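Dear Dr. K.,

Following up on our conversation at the group meeting, I've run the structure prediction for MFS transporter from Croceitalea vernalis. I'm pasting the input sequence below exactly as I used it, so you can double-check it against your construct before we proceed with anything downstream. Let me know if the numbering doesn't match what you have in your notebook.
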Amino acid sequence: MEQINKNKLFFAACISLVVTSMTFAIRAGILTQLGVDFEINNKELGYINSMAFLGFPLAMLIGGLLYNALGPKKLLITAFVCHLLGLVLTIYAGGFWTLIISTFFIGFANGSVEAACNPMIADMYTNNRTAMLNKFHVWFPGGLVIGSLVSKFMTDAGLGWQLQIATMLIPTLIYGFLVFTQKFPKSENIESNTSENIKALGNPLFLFMIVCMTLTATSEFIPQQWVETILGSSGASPMLVLALVTGIMALGRFFAGPIVHKLNPIGVLFMSAIITASAIYFMSISEGGMIYVAAALFALGVCYFWPTMIGFTSEYTSKTGALGMSLMGGAGMFATSIWNPIIGSRLDTEKANALSTGLVGELADIEAGRAVLGFMVYFPLALVVLFGILFVMRKKIEEQRINSAPTEAA
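The predicted structure tokens came back this morning:
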């Protein structure tokens, strides 16, 4: 790896993740506009959203299986091509089905980014995997901040959703240039035998964590993806809520190293589940300015979920290699793709219930949003139990962890 410029590769990975997260933020910001322009209801919007979350795990499954054969460079080229296709097709979308197809391409690109970058970073920074994966994943909330502010200001300025989508072409071209001009490393510090990876998937700890990942991802992404629709009439600016949440998440992940070393990944996950459950409940009963306080607590709760789950997989079930990391992320996104239309449908149902009780306009929207958030509390509550079990058994589980050395600088 002496001839490999790790800093430039890490930077390229971060920019590709910025594009990934901007697709989430800007889509959340234009969801209402899409519904109006194409006469699409919340359930149909949920299906469109679900395509991003369905393309993601499919790309991670394929990328995880082929990582050892193709390497990270070819997977990132795939991501670049699919991002370009998805963004251009979205700009020229004509209705429900074209949005379904374009959103799937974007989801596939996003999954390809994760499938390529997670094992590449674990391999390059093998002595400090969870901390460096947290530092990489700073740019998911970082990109969400950028995307949510772009969406808010462009919407306020009366600029169409097509222009908002077009802004993402700029970072896409930047990371594409970096990918094509850099030399990438061969796997040296992760299990690169695919048959061994597949055998290791039967590890009970890995299977347990797959179940947990479906709950951590749903707890994190569903409230963020539906923030405008759920909180639009609550007295708080949905895009400012999203920017606040993601800004705090970025800071939390950037300084994750000392926290991970102090509590270890199991302690971090257990603490995160408790805070997230409290925050979503708080959000469901808050009004006006207090929603920002609840959102800040939510950000502290979910910020370590995704990268720590991926880092946990690479450290505690290391034999699963790139495939294990990809399947872990894929399971989270697949679960989110299933829950997206369900949440959209539930939102429609709760609004109908609110209207039937005599509430009208924004009051009905607020009541429906609170009901949906109240339902969402059950996901992190289940995690409190599951991660609590891991915490009790942590001494035994630590025996499966690969050796970890002091923090390695980026």
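Two things stood out to me. The first helix runs from residue 6 to 37. The CA atoms of residues 11 and 363 lie 45 Å apart.

Best regards,
J.T.
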